[in-house]
Amino acid sequence: MENKLPELLPCPFCGCKKIKKEFRYKEITIKCANCTAKFVQRTRFHDMDWLERAVIELWNNRTSEVN
Predict the structure, then answer these.
(1) What is the pTM of this model?
(2) How many CB atoms lie within 10 A of CB 29?
């Protein structure tokens, strides 16, 4: 059974849907192509599959809107 990664949501700041993932040794960066908002996460103990899933979940996390 394959664990599919969640899709990246648009940028929380500008709404751009062009989001890039960059991989380096033990590091993943997710950034917006429009406003350059970015999220960088490194790991020392986990593998890159775990890190990629964690970073996507953190990028996709949104606070609820106040009405």
Answers:
(1) 0.78
(2) 15
Q: Does a structural domain hold residue 46?
A: yes
Q: Number of folded domains in the chain?
A: 1
pLDDT digits (tens, 9 = 90+) for 7-61: 999 999 999 999 999 999 999 999 999 998 999 999 988 889 999 999 999 999 9
**Side-chain-facing half-sphere of 4: CA atoms under 13 Å:** 3
Element (H, E) at 55: helix 48-60
The phi-psi region of residue 35 (left if phi > 0; otherwise alpha if psi is between -120 and 50; otherwise beta) is alpha
Chain center to CA of 3: 17
